Amino acid sequence: MQLLSHSPDETEAAGARLAETLGPGAVVAFTGDLGAGKTAFTRGLARGLGIRERVTSPTFTIVNEYLGGRLPLFHFDMYRLGSADELYDIGWEDYLARGGVCAVEWSENVSDALEPGAIRVDIRRGPEEDDRVITITGGNVS
């Protein structure tokens, strides 16, 4: 599925719509340039899961946990990780076992650790300054 977003609010709305379809253990793997809208999409995931906390990029903490919704959201930023081994070192399997949604920015840095069933979300800049082309594949996305 491909969407065209014209604003960060529309990008968040796309994330909220996807969140409504997610179940325990879902992995959402993001790719896209710096500033493309991965965190905005994740804010939408949180909203769609009923999480009221402010969602911020986990660039320096590696993972932020949001527990107040119908499912927990574990927001990872793999920008600073060099391999899947480092992901396992921070407890990746434990997060998967907790039954929440794992949103993984810069997923290409740990692609060999992600299951084939992960939902892939690629966000690229569009023709206008605030436009984003969002491509969602995998999982049960049609």
Describe this structure in words.
By secondary structure, the chain is an alpha/beta fold. The chain has a single domain (2-137), classed as Rossmann fold. It is 25% helix and 26% strand. The chain has four helices and seven strands. It has helices spanning 8-19, 38-48, 84-89, 92-97, and strands at 2-5, 27-32, 63-66, 73-77, 101-105, 119-125, 132-137. The protein has a seven-stranded mixed beta sheet. A hairpin with a 6-residue loop joins strand 6 (119-125) and strand 7 (132-137). The longest helix has 12 residues, at 8-19. It is globular, with a radius of gyration of 14 Å. The N and C termini lie close together (6 Å). The mean pLDDT is 89.
Gist of the model:
The chain has one domain: P-loop containing nucleotide triphosphate hydrolases (Rossmann fold, 3-Layer(aba) Sandwich). Helix content is 25%, strand content 26%.
Fill in the keyword field for this structure.
single chain; globular; alpha/beta; 4 helices; 142 residues; Rossmann fold
CATH topology: Rossmann fold
Strand composition percent: 25-35%
Structurally, the number of domains stands at 1
Overall geometric form: globular
How would you summarize the topology of this molecule?
Elements: E1 2-5, H1 8-19, E2 27-32, H2 38-48, E3 63-66, E4 73-77, H3 84-89, H4 92-97, E5 101-105, E6 119-125, E7 132-137
Parallel strand pairs: 2-5, 2-6, 4-5
Antiparallel strand pairs: 1-7, 3-4, 6-7
